[in-house]
Design goal:
Length: about 130
């Protein structure tokens, strides 16, 4: 509390620190009460590591080529368009979830219907990564 001298009626410029001290004491008591509770260990059940499965690298791509005589080749080996469907389904079954890429190369003189059958076979087998190469 500030005292005034007699005859001086000007404004008082002193800060009243009593409310500040009251707030600080309340905060100090709160921190003293809550500090022991924060330091108690909390049991947490974390998952334990299991055997690490190495990443499966994508298998080698399948090369399908159609020549000018409308003959299809599977990685350089001749194959009929009819058996291409079953061969692609076998690959899709063997590599479920990690299908190899299918690279299709066609001669400019190859017939469109043969390429349409190759693409239909790939679609029916569920091949997802199809690329056209030269």
């Amino acid at each position: 509390m500030a005292f005034r001298a007699a005859g001086n009626a000007g404004p008082l410029a002193d800060i009243n620190v009593t409310p500040l001290v009251d707030v600080m004491l309340v905060l100090l008591i709160i921190f003293i009460v809550t500090a022991p509770m924060v330091s108690l260990p909390i049991p947490v059940h974390l998952p334990q590591p299991t055997t690490v499965v190495p990443p499966v690298w994508p298998p080698a791509p399948i090369e399908v080529r159609v020549d000018a005589g409308n003959q299809a080749y599977w990685n350089g080996q001749p194959i009929t368009v009819e058996t291409l469907q079953s061969r692609l389904q076998e690959v899709a079954h063997d590599y479920a979830g990690n299908l190899p890429a299918l690279r299709i190369a066609a001669d400019p003189d190859a017939h469109y219907d043969v390429m349409a059958k190759v693409l239909a076979a790939a679609n029916n087998a569920g091949m997802e990564r199809i690329a056209f190469v030269q």
